[in-house]
Amino acid sequence: MPSLPPVHVIIPTHTDRYLDFVLVGLARQTVAPASITVTCDVVDERIDAMIRYCADWLGLSIRHVRRPHSGTERLAQVRNNAVRALLDSGISEGRLLFLDGDTYPSDTCVERHARLGEGVDLVLPYRMYLTEQQTARLDAGSILRGEQSIAPTATQRAQLDRLHNRYLLHQRLRRMRLAKSHKPKMLGGHHSVMLDIYRKVNGHDEEYHTWGTEDDDFCRRVYRAGGTARIAVRDILVYHLHHPSRAPGDWFDRPNAKRFLRRDLPVRCVKGLDSPLDQPPVQVDTIAPVTTPGRL
Q1: pTM score of the predicted model
Q2: How many CA atoms lie less than 13 Å away from 89 in the CB half-sphere?
Q3: Which CATH number fits domain 7-275: 3.30.9.10, 1.10.630.10, 3.40.50.300, 3.90.550.10?
Q4: Is the pLDDT of residue 251 over 80?
Q5: Which of 42, 123, 208, 269 has its CA 20 to 30 A from that of 277?
């Protein structure tokens, strides 16, 4: 059986809240990620301390990429910063798996992205939203030791099934050239993409500031570049841990909507992976475990 392609996990975050959960999930994978990178648009001692603690506790080597906050959220650039750090370390192939820092990946997440991603550029899953009560009952240490598990309710599973079928419909419409330019759409907080097509479209467009729509733009450019996708909404479980968040509001009121609706944006973005927008100096460190992991 041929070996699976390497999967490089990238975790954008601006807080240490729940970061231990996503790292515990990665420590439990049936197929270990080839690398783990935490990337931040803020320099925060609490995040640094959490990464060092988890590296030692879980026996993980974790790359930490960060730069001072630049006055506004720049998630597109933060994702590119992680990929630039990977390229600078000598990595030139494989699959990039993006997981937000407030998620918990199921044990087969990395393996399923690798297997389902064979022969396609994008793997398009989703995430299952845990309630405040479900989240409050969770403990990262208990999960690591196998004393506690997360499982979807029947209602949550049915919701994923419906969404999966909707994505398949958008994929059929795309084959008939009837789908919107970015659909079936990508969820920025959980998806994977081959490094070669990421480089082909010059990564994320860094002229998208604040939040939202930058993932729709990226997905649209991948499709326009000839990229292919596999729908995996019900096949790869990742859980979103509950926390207070802003209401999404109307799509057309989002700060980036006007830019996304422009028809003159190129497939290969102007300010992206190979041509970054100006930013404060980026610091990259690799945090290795100091002691024998407590889980062994």
Answers
A1: 0.94
A2: 20
A3: 3.90.550.10
A4: no
A5: 123
